[in-house]
Design brief:
The chain is an alpha+beta fold. The chain is built from six helices and eight strands, in the order ββαααβββαβαββα. The structure holds coenzyme A. The site of coenzyme A (COA) has 20 residues, from α2, β5, α4 and α5.
């Protein structure tokens, strides 16, 4: 088992097939909360869809293209965080995350991002990390802002969620600026 403790009782674990029921249960209990901002929620109708996602993530990991991790509070899956496919040519990656509603408001995703960004710069030696958030998703936009990312632009109609195209803020962090922040 590979895991990274991010604070007392909260850790990140590389998603494995055996985690599928717990991850699916977290999605299933939080549909109304998650479907506002994530395009895949309504398609995730059974544990098999989560299992497929995990298998794709493990293949991504095996290909050295990044990974997805569960965010665990004790024995409960609180959400996930992951790197999209790493762009090795340009040494950059985009990260994404979600959290069950009852775990919001404690800084858990901010800490989880900090751990993944440390990994991206220190282990993968990337030069740039991006976070894309719908412009109206205030809680998500607050995460990169809290971590010192710069708002670099807006991608127009970049996400199709609930039948509507949403504009996306692009937040960026460079390796040199992350190191300066210590
Ligand atoms: C986006 C999302 C992950 C943000 O969750 P969150 O709980 O607000 O983010 P964090 O876990 O970093 O917690 C930050 C909150 O905890 C508070 N907090 C408490 N202790 C903290 C600490 N030690 N460090 C940082 N923040 C802390 C912050 O003040 C903030 O609360 P506020 O929103 O009332 O100001 C969550 O709302 C979500 O999953 N939404 C639906 C899916 C989604 O939008 N995913 C992102 C798509 S781009």
């Amino acid at each position: 088992m590979f895991q990274c403790d991010i604070r007392d009782g909260v850790c990140l674990k590389l998603l494995e097939e055996r985690h599928a029921p717990a991850v699916f249960a977290a999605v299933d209990r939080n549909r109304a909360h998650l479907r506002k901002w994530l395009p895949w929620v309504d398609d995730t109708t059974s544990v098999g869809y989560t299992l497929n996602f995990i298998r794709t993530s493990l293949q991504q990991f095996a290909n050295n293209e990044g990974f997805a991790a569960g965010i665990w509070c004790g024995d409960e899956c609180a959400g996930t965080i992951g790197a999209h496919k790493i762009d090795w040519l340009n040494r950059k990656v985009e990260i994404g995350y979600w959290l069950a509603s009852k775990f919001q408001g404690r800084g858990i995703v901010t800490d989880a991002c900090r751990a993944l960004i440390d990994h991206a710069f220190e282990e993968w030696k990337l030069n740039r990390v991006e976070i894309h958030c719908a412009t109206g998703n205030k809680k998500s936009c607050a995460v990169p802002k809290r971590l010192g990312f710069q708002l670099e632009g807006v991608l127009r109609k970049a996400q199709l969620v609930g039948g509507k195209y949403l504009d996306s803020n692009v937040y960026g962090m460079l390796a040199r600026d992350w190191k300066k922040r210590g």
